[in-house]
Structure formats: structure tokens, C-alpha cells
Design a protein that fits this description.
By secondary structure, the protein is of the alpha/beta class. It is about 40% helix and about 20% strand. The strands form 7 sheets. Strands 1, 4, 7, 8, 9, 10, 11, 12, 15 and 16 form a 10-stranded mixed β-sheet that branches. A 6-stranded parallel β-sheet has the order 19-18-17-20-21-22, with helices on both faces.
Length: about 850
């Protein structure tokens, strides 16, 4: 019979065990091995059955067992130590508190998904896992972050396979009362809520759930409340589901409702108000509109409020292709803002102007969330060096007149939270070498001296560790494969072959990620005969573990999954290649450590960063990857292999796949497998062990989320906080007025004449020329602009590369026509073809970049031909 109503009955813990509840409600347990060990000892069987979820565990422990533990002195001592350790972690000074600069009092971090733990399934892939790792690393470093997201009642989908290998989706309902969450409440005990106005005098209400991620509060908004109509209750139904209007409402709730939730949290708890707002991808971009509305309500005009908001906002883009960005029809956005809708006092045209693609190549009727994010943030970044370059090119239309390399988008390469992803066995080996406390610090903050100690670990210990991890993976794979086949309808009698799947002594390759077409799940199947030869080689076989989810609406991705599954079902190779459905955090934490090789073969440069290979590397797994994302930045032959790419403009996609697949097979046959199987005098694979050692010692400190968050603090959060403090109402009004004046007068800014002291077209290295420029500033003065000489080596088309920029200084008063002369030195500091030009940029102390306004004046073509100079 089916229940007509459902309740969540929480256990009543005996007084001596009350600290267990506090430990369970703080998600630090998800990356703190000692706390997990304590919960496991409560009831090992139920711990395993709960999937390692302390809240579910405590909900199922019989009262008799709780009473027994309440009288167990040894257990109570361990419980007390764990509670004391958590208290010290939550209250003690950490890296952030030791900094001497005046850092932000708080930072609000908005993301549409957060991958904290499998017990809180609010993520779909890399963006969410990255956001979760960002919060955890901020907690470890003591950064006063407040996370903001949505609570999806179905989370992301669960994946299973049909008998013929077709992906099937399931959406289990999540009850917040059964998750490690608490409701934010008003002083009278009522649930705290935020509300958005919708067209037709409707409203969208959401309550606020709190997940405590170590020291970091994570606020999750949930629209499934009784005050909402049925349609509004479903706004937070599932991650990345629904049509355009559904997505727009989700993103309005995340951005606008998220700011209101932060204000409520700070009011109710006394937490410091954020000085910096970090928008993790464009989904949360509407947060800037709400902050503008707050300032306008306080008396600022729109333009001044925009400047104040931009000063304290950081925007991170994660996509390398325009198709990966949320875009909405102009009419849809218009309907949801202005009179009779949200932000009624704000002109809809002002809202639209922030997101419309009003640049060459843009779609003029589309509202682009990433474009709005960039226009609302004074600081922006991509997530690897290569992705920063791609982003500057992709968004260069927003800064006309500037070369892509000068577009003000920097990069902070992603990192991963080592305590979450490093296997306990790996940690224990490190702790044995340098001590548990120093090992924890090495994983958290990063310290190359501590990572250098890997050099002292004996080869035998490293090889035994790798084999034991491979053995654990084999056991895990067999259990999951058996469960998958049972779901596919197989009888137990059919599945005896699974006991022979994989071998703990065979070179093991892992490939697990989302399944969009650009990640090329099936590239390995390009030449099936060659792949079979690799899998079944009599002396140097390989085995492959594959996992991944295609988006529910992506039938092309589902066909790729089915193609891979059907190959893996072949009785000839099914003991050597497996596909595991329902890839998620719990599976990933077993998969990364057990693999010897982590395979990644995206279409370059479509992988913005790709952090799965980082997690594998922290466990001594070697990377075999196309040079894309982070691997392009940090690859060295010492610790992995680069798959050559055929990304020339004239190569069609099919031929490119064929070339790169052949290169992959060659690497596996000729270099990877021989390195794994060859034995030195000691009987061990010396070369392989040395590559593992170098992976840990050289890559280890780089791939840490602790390094990433420190970079965000030093390069983005701290400057944004300084800009926020400087942008008081008077400064905001002054800057907004100045920008309006400069834009209005810029048509009169000209470079009229350029001359140098050079007499020939050749000169010796080290020569310094005198440069003299006459400019017209229209209605602007010298304090409003900077006149620059830009020089450097030139290519065949006379484009300056590797440019050096030198400001020129005004010389004397303006002439009768108002034109001014600027002078300065031009150093010929490199040999070969050399060139220069002159330009004028707006200049103001509160600008973060000279390109910020997208305004530049350069010599006319006629003037350039007359005055241009090339030294050859």
C-alpha cells in the first residue's frame, strides 16, 4: 500500500551523544576522515547502507545501540575529541586571518550547482564540483565566504541502462528534512523567506535552507512552499530542466532571490555583509540588478549604482563556446521586469541594455547571461590560461578597438579539494612520511617542500599502494556492474562472468565525465580492431573503466553512451572494458585512485579546464590527455603524455577524429603500456614509479583548490574589496558622470600627427628614439586620457606582437586649436622587424583597466602610412 502522507522522524540522541548531531550537520565530515571513522564505528553495516551519510545513519540506528554507545567510555572519548577538533577548526585563525592586507569582511559566492557530497546531490558535473571544492578550500583557509544556490527537489537525474544500453533517467524526490540541512528562521521561529514579483500580480516565494560546509554557510533557495501556486512550486524542481521561462525564473531566483537571502542571513545571524559578490558563471548574473535596485532605493541614480555594484563584483566564465551560455528572448526578459513584475522601479530598457548582444556578430534580439555578467563585473576570469585566451577572443566584441589579448578577462586555473579526492590509503602513506598534521597542511594550503618529501618514499611502497588501489577498484567495479546488469533485467545465473571482470595486475585506464559530443566518449572506438588488440594483448593488456551521463535532452549523447555500452557488452572484451552507469561523486572517489591512466580526449580548445585529471593525479594516476584546459598549461613529459591534436582550420571533423584516435592508439601501444609493464633490476617498473613520484611532487601543489582560492583572494577578491570601499556614493556619482562625459566627447578625440627622431628604417638594438605626438582631445582634458606608445615585434601583416606600452607625457599648453603635444622615449629593445603605434585611452583612478570603457583612439590609416616606422 502507498502512504498518503510522509513524515521524517528524526532520532532523539541521548545527552552524551548530542555532539553526534552537530558533527552530522556540518559537512566537514565529507572531507574529514577522523569524523567519518567515528560515524562508521556507530554501526558499520548501516554506515555502508547509508552511503556514508551521517544523517541517514543516525536516522536508522536502533535506540538500543544508541544507549549502548552512550555508556561506552572509549566511544565518548573519541566523540569528545572529534567535537573539540571541529570547534577548533570553526573558531581558530587560519591562512586568511594571518594575512596583513585588509581583505574582504565577507564574499558572497553564487553558483547554480554545488557538489559538496553525494549525500547532498545538487550538482551535475564539473561546474558544481568546482563550486563545492571552492567552498571547502575557502573553509580550510578561513576565507569568509557565503555560498548561494538553489535546492533542487529532484537534484540531477539518476542514470540506469536499458537492456540494449540506452540511458534511462530517474528523478528521485529529495526531502530536505532528510538531508544535512537546517531551515533559516526568523526570531519568532517562522521560516525565513524571499519573494519575487511575477507578471499578473503573482509572486514566487522561496524558503532558505542552510548547509554548513565547514566554516562556510551555503544558502539554498527552495520554491516548493505552500504559499506558491503549483507552477511556482516547481521552479526549483530539477537542475538544468524545463524550457526557457523555467530557466529564467530559476536564474532570477538564484540571482535576485539569492541577494535577498544573503541579506536575511546576515540580519538573522550577525554575519558580516559581503563586500565582494562572485558570480560563478552567468546563471547568477541577475544578482547585480538586485544590488543596483538596493542602491537606487537608497538614493543613487541607476548609472551611479551600476558603478558601485561593478566595483565589488567578480565574474567567472566557464564556457569556451557561445552555445554553452544561457540566452533568452528579449520579449521574455521584458515580461519579467519592470512595472507589474520584478524590480518595478527599474527601467526595462536599462535591464535589457546590460545583456543584449549589441556587438558585431551578436544576435540583437537575445539577452545573454554571460554578457550581462561581464558588464556587471569590473573583474572577470576564465578557468585556465588557455581558457582565458579563448574567453578574451570570444567576448572581444564587448571591447571594440582592442586586440583580444587586451580584453580585461584574466584567468585563475581551477584546482581540486585534495582532502575530498585523495584516497585514505594515499593520505596514510604521506602521513607516514611527514606526519598527519603536515600532510593535512600540504593537501589544504599547499607547500612544495612538503610535496618534495614524496622523493623519499621507497619505490616498493609506491608500487604496493598503486596495486592495492587497483584491487579496491576491481572490487568496486564488479559490485556496480552486477547491480547495473540486474537493473537491466539480467538474472543472477547469467552474471557469473562478472567475477572475472578486470584484473588488479593489468594497466587500468579511466574515462569518466559528462557526455557532450566535444568530450568524444567514443573516440577510443574509432578503430575497434586496434582497441581489441590493446585490450587482449597477451603480454601488455589494458583495461578500461568508463562512466558518464548524457543530458536527458541530448539524444546524440545518449547514442554515444549506447555505442560504448554495446561494445563493452561484447563477450570477447567485457572482462577488459566496462561502462558504469550513474556516475557521481561517490563513484568518482573510488575511480580516480584505482586507475593508472586518466584519459581525456576533448576537441581542443573546448575543455575550459577539466579537473578530473587533477583528482586522478593527486592519487598517483598519470594523465594521458589532449593538451586542453589545465593540461595545456602544466603538461610535462615527466608525468604524463599529450595526445597530439589535428586542429588546423583545414581539417574536417571526421579526419581530425581519425588522426587523433590513431595518435592515442600509438601512445598506448608504443609508450604507455611498455612503460607500465617493463621491469628494472629491482623487479619493479622503475620508469612508471618515477612518473608517479613526479606527478605527486610536481603537479600536487599546483592542482590544489587551496592554491586556486588563494589566487582568487589575492588577485580578485582583495582588489574588488578595495574598489568597493573606494566607491562610496559620491565617488560612484563622480565616476558615472565622468564616463558619461567621456563617452559623449570621445568622437572628438584624435591622433593628428606622429613623428620620431629616426632618420632611416633601420636602427641598432638599444637605440632610444624620441617620439612626439600631436592629439586632439575634444572637450576632454589631459587628466581624462592616457596617450600611449605601443611597440614590439611585428608579424608579416605588421601586427604588433608581445607589445610594450609606454605612457607619453604632455608637453606645454594646447595650441590655438586646442590640440596638445605628447612626448616620450621609444626603446628599440629587440632585434628583427619592429614597429610602433600610438593610441589614446580614457584614464581614471577608479578604472580597473584602460579597456574598461571599450574606447580607444588610434591614428588614421593615412596618418599611419605617413608616420609609421618599421625597423627591420
Amino acid at each position: 500500500m502507498k502512504a498518503i502522507r510522509r513524515f521524517t522522524v528524526r532520532p532523539v540522541l541521548p545527552d552524551p551523544l548530542r555532539p553526534l548531531g552537530d558533527l552530522a550537520r556540518n559537512l566537514r565530515w565529507s572531507w574529514h576522515a577522523g569524523t567519518r571513522d567515528l560515524f562508521r564505528s556507530v554501526d558499520p553495516g548501516r554506515w555502508a547502507a547509508s552511503g556514508g551519510d551521517p544523517v541517514r545513519l543516525l536516522g536508522g540506528v536502533p535506540p538500543a545501540r544508541l544507549a549502548e554507545l552512550a555508556g561506552d567510555r572509549d566511544f565518548l572519548d573519541r566523540l569528545g575529541a572529534a567535537a573539540d577538533d571541529l570547534h577548533a577548526y570553526m573558531t581558530g585563525d587560519r591562512w586568511y586571518q594571518a594575512q596583513t592586507d585588509r581583505l574582504p569582511a565577507a564574499v558572497a559566492y553564487f553558483s547554480p550547482e554545488f557538489g559538496i557530497t553525494a549525500a547532498l546531490p545538487q550538482y551535475s558535473g564539473g561546474l558544481g564540483i568546482l563550486a563545492g571544492d571552492h567552498l571547502k578550500a575557502a573553509s580550510d583557509l578561513g576565507v569568509p565566504l557565503v555560498g548561494v544556490g538553489l535546492l533542487y527537489r529532484h537534484g540531477y537525474f539518476r542514470q540506469s541502462l536499458s537492456r540494449d544500453g540506452w540511458q534511462q533517467e530517474h528523478y528521485p524526490v529529495l526531502d530536505p528534512h532528510e538531508l544535512p540541512l537546517d531551515q533559516l528562521r526568523e526570531p519568532d521561529g517562522a521560516p525565513a523567506q524571499v519573494a519575487l514579483a511575477l507578471p499578473g500580480d503573482r509572486s514566487l516565494r522561496a524558503r532558505i535552507w542552510l548547509a554548513q560546509v565547514g566554516r562556510v554557510p551555503l544558502l539554498l533557495l527552495d520554491s516548493d512552499v505552500e504559499e506558491n501556486d503549483l507552477g511556482e512550486r516547481g521552479v526549483t524542481d530539477r537542475l538544468y530542466g524545463g524550457g526557457s521561462e523555467h530557466r529564467l525564473l530559476q536564474e532570477m531566483l538564484l540571482g535576485i532571490g539569492g541577494v535577498r537571502a544573503v541579506r536575511a542571513y546576515c540580519r538573522l545571524t550577525g554575519h558580516a555583509e559581503p563586500e565582494v559578490f562572485h558570480t560563478n558563471e552567468g546563471h547568477a548574473g541577475f544578482l547585480g540588478l538586485e544590488r543596483i535596485a538596493e542602491l537606487c532605493a537608497g538614493g543613487l541614480d541607476f548609472d551611479s549604482a551600476l558603478e558601485a555594484v561593478r566595483a565589488g563584483t567578480v565574474f567567472t566564465t566557464h564556457t569556451p563556446v557561445p552555445a554553452g551560455i544561457d540566452r533568452f528572448d528579449r520579449e521574455l526578459v521584458t515580461r519579467h521586469f519592470g512595472p507589474h513584475a520584478e524590480l518595478p522601479d527599474m527601467e526595462v530598457d536599462r535591464v535589457l541594455r546590460l545583456g543584449m548582444e549589441t556587438y558585431p556578430g551578436g544576435e540583437p534580439n537575445l539577452f545573454n547571461m554571460a554578457v550581462m555578467g561581464l558588464r556587471l563585473a569590473q573583474r572577470a576570469n576564465g578557468v585556465s590560461l588557455l581558457h582565458g585566451e579563448v574567453s578574451r577572443e570570444m567576448f572581444s566584441g564587448l571591447w571594440p578597438g582592442f586586440d583580444p589579448e587586451e580584453v580585461p578577462i584574466t584567468s585563475v586555473t581551477n584546482g581540486v579539494h585534495a582532502p575530498t579526492w585523495v584516497a585514505p590509503e594515499v593520505f596514510r602513506l604521506g602521513a607516514r612520511q611527514i606526519g598527519a598534521r603536515r600532510a593535512e597542511e600540504a593537501l589544504g594550503v599547499g607547500d612544495s617542500d612538503r610535496w618534495d618529501s614524496v622523493a623519499d618514499i621507497p619505490d616498493q611502497d609506491i608500487w604496493e599502494l598503486r596495486r592495492s588501489l587497483r584491487e579496491l577498484l576491481v572490487t568496486e567495479v564488479r559490485e556496480r556492474l552486477r547491480a547495473s546488469w540486474r537493473q537491466r533485467g539480467a538474472a543472477t545465473a547469467e552474471l557469473g562472468w562478472i567475477d572475472g571482470v578486470l584484473d588488479p595486475d593489468v594497466l587500468t585506464i579511466g574515462f569518466a565525465r559528462r557526455v557532450p559530443s566535444y568530450k568524444r566518449l567514443t573516440l577510443m572506438l574509432r578503430d575497434r580492431d586496434r582497441l581489441m588488440d590493446l585490450l587482449l594483448h597477451p603480454e601488455r593488456p589494458v583495461q578500461i573503466v568508463v562512466a558518464g551521463k548524457a543530458h536527458p535532452a541530448d539524444d546524440g549523447g545518449k547514442r554515444l553512451v549506447q555505442e560504448l555500452v554495446r561494445f563493452a557488452d561484447d563477450p570477447r572484451v567485457r572482462h577488459r572494458i566496462v561502462f558504469l552507469p550513474d556516475y557521481g561523486m561517490a563513484m568518482a572517489q573510488k575511480l580516480y585512485p584505482g586507475c593508472d591512466i586518466w584519459l581525456n580526449n576533448p576537441l581542443r580548445p573546448l575543455e575550459a579546464c577539466g579537473t578530473s585529471g587533477m583528482k586522478a593525479a593527486l592519487n598517483g594516476c598519470l594523465n594521458l590527455s589532449v593538451r586542453d584546459g589545465w593540461w595545456d598549461e602544466w603538461f610535462q613529459p615527466d608525468f604524463g603524455w599529450a595526445i597530439p591534436t589535428a586542429d588546423g582550420a583545414g581539417t574536417d571533423p571526421d579526419r581530425r577524429d581519425a588522426i587523433e584516435a590513431a595518435a592515442l592508439y600509438d601512445l598506448l601501444e608504443q609508450r604507455v603500456a611498455p612503460c607500465f609493464y617493463e621491469r628494472g633490476e629491482s623487479g619493479l617498473p622503475d620508469r612508471w614509479i618515477e612518473m608517479v613520484r613526479r606527478t605527486l611532487s610536481l603537479l600536487g601543489p599546483k592542482v590544489l583548490a587551496g592554491r586556486m582560492v588563494r589566487e582568487y583572494v589575492e588577485r580578485l577578491y582583495a582588489p574588488a574589496a578595495r574598489a568597493h570601499r573606494a566607491m562610496d556614493p559620491d565617488a560612484a556619482r563622480e565616476l558615472a558622470g565622468w564616463k558619461a562625459r567621456v563617452r559623449g566627447a570621445w568622437h572628438g578625440v584624435t591622433v593628428d600627427h606622429v613623428e620620431t627622431s629616426a632618420t632611416t628604417a633601420t636602427a641598432e638594438l638599444g637605440t632610444t628614439l624620441a617620439l612626439r605626438v600631436r592629439v586632439g582631445l575634444g572637450g576632454l582634458g589631459p587628466d581624462d586620457v592616457e596617450v600611449q606608445a605601443v611597440s614590439g615585434r611585428v608579424d608579416e601583416e605588421d601586427r604588433i606582437t608581445d607589445a610594450a606600452v609606454v605612457p607619453l607625457k604632455p608637453a606645454g599648453a594646447p595650441d590655438r586649436e586646442g590640440r596638445r603635444v605628447y612626448e616620450g622615449p621609444l626603446s628599440l629593445d629587440r632585434t628583427g622587424p619592429f614597429g610602433y603605434t600610438v593610441r589614446i585611452l580614457p584614464s581614471h583612478p577608479l578604472l580597473a583597466s584602460g579597456a574598461e570603457l571599450g574606447l580607444v583612439a588610434v591614428p588614421s590609416e593615412e596618418l599611419a602610412e605617413a608616420a609609421g616606422l618599421l625597423m627591420r
